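Input:
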Amino acid sequence: MRILGIDPGSRLTGYGLIEGRGNRLRHVDNGVIVTSSRQPLADRLKIIHDGVAELVERFAPDVLAIENIFLARNAQSALKLGHARASAMLAAINAGLPVCEYSALQVKSAVVGYGKAEKIQVQQMVRTLLNLPEIAQEDAADALAVAICHFHSAPLQNRLALAGNRKVKK
Amino acid sequence: MRILGIDPGSRLTGYGLIEGRGNRLRHVDNGVIVTSSRQPLADRLKIIHDGVAELVERFAPDVLAIENIFLARNAQSALKLGHARASAMLAAINAGLPVCEYSALQVKSAVVGYGKAEKIQVQQMVRTLLNLPEIAQEDAADALAVAICHFHSAPLQNRLALAGNRKVKK
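Output:
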């Protein structure tokens, strides 16, 4: 299973690609999609959308994993984040990819094993799990974290879906 | 010139199509794109995106006009609005359409002639200007208002662009 994790932002959108086989995880790629606040909003949305679309085409992931935001600094930054998030998600949706959302608590629990872990602990753990000497961009590390969260959550979700199906069939 | 006005919302996205020839305005269509809060976010973004994409294909507008949001009730509603806004804008952007943003002040000034006009005054003026007995949905009326705003602003923008070009050529 190939997972594309996305950490959206109006200036920097981090991405991280991992591949999971059985219990083993492998790093594929990571980086950031950059926009400038001097560009018109329409151009920035297109850069994020097309950037994610290109990753989807190039790496053919099975799913896009993205953090679900419940807290934002203020309404203006929440609006910007919403723009970036939707642009990234639509690139996946338009390519027929499923999109899975995870809370910060779920990501931290899955990566560090503790829902209130510090950001730096999460990033160190991502490097350890993927056997990477360093990850250049913080946003790319966060994107890898949400991808790892999906990798750990997917088997549970599959079991729940199967259990749900069995219930329906009764 | 055919203008598609959009008033995005996470539940209801209003749209309004008008056609301007010289100083004359004609109503083409209006309505709302509906999503439900019970649907997953990815499905809702797709409904808004595909709904706007369908309007673009069906009516072939020259431009998409949308209100620029500076105030939102809170961060959570701003995030939802950002999702809906980006989804609508991307449908236009992906079809190669220019996107023009206007503030609430600009919309009210263009439609009513007074930047602090009440919402109801704007809606009444939209009906009068387009010679419509009624507009079923409030969000559709707001979408028509931003389309009318673009119609009135476009000649000025064109003149400014021409003036800018002349300056550059000096």
